[in-house]
Structure formats: C-alpha cells, structure tokens
Amino acid sequence: MTTSAYFGIKGMEIISYISVPLIAVLGTISVQKALMQGEGLVIPALIVLGANIWTTNDNTLYNAGLGLSNITKRKKRPLVIISGITGTLASFWIYKYFVE
Asked: pLDDT tens for residues 66-84?
C-alpha cells in the first residue's frame, strides 16, 4: 500500500469518526456542513473558499488573456478584460444547468 493511499484511507476514517457523531447531534446529512457547524467554522470556511476561488480564477483569466495576446498579437490588457466579461456572462448562462 502506498503512502498516499494509506493517508487517503486514514483521512477518510478520521473524517468519519468526527462526522458521524456530528450528524447524529446536528441532524444533517451533509458532512461538510456538519463539520463546519460543529466547529463553528462556517464563516471562516466561506472566506477560505472565496479566496481559493478568487486566486484560481485570477490566474486562469490572466493565462487566457496572455494566450489570446500571443495568438492575436494584440495588447494583453483589453483581451483580459474581454475574457473576464465573456467568462462572467458565460457563467451566468451555464449556472442554470447546475441548479435545476
């Protein structure tokens, strides 16, 4: 058994030891919600999630603008702005398919 598989299995075991009693106490099936509510970490968890999404999408947007700049031989800044607007509008359109 490799080390990563071992820690993956043990990590799930530890999470189940924590989450099963929390589910019984809080009465919710969502393990993440039970863990965050049980520890009082809902707001910090949302802040960390927002920062994670922000930094990931920031790099993705920059790389998209840089790639378009290299392909079209135009300035990067307007292409980053256009990519951001296009991505934002596309996210509003595709959102409805995830929340039905």
From this structure: 888 899 999 988 888 888 8
Tell me: do 34 and 15 sit in the same domain.
yes
Same domain, 71 and 24: no
Instruction: Clarify whether residues 19 and 31 are in a common domain.
Output: yes
Using CA atoms, how far apart are residues 62 and 58, in angstroms rounded to an integer? 6
Q: What is the pTM of this model?
A: 0.50
Q: Are residues 26 and 61 in the same domain?
A: no
Tens of pLDDT, residues 10-48: 767 777 777 677 667 766 666 666 666 667 777 787 788
Tell me the Ramachandran region of residue 94: left when phi exceeds 0, alpha when psi lies from -120 to 50, beta otherwise. alpha
33: closest CA among 20, 42, 25? 42
C-alpha 98 chain-centroid distance = 15
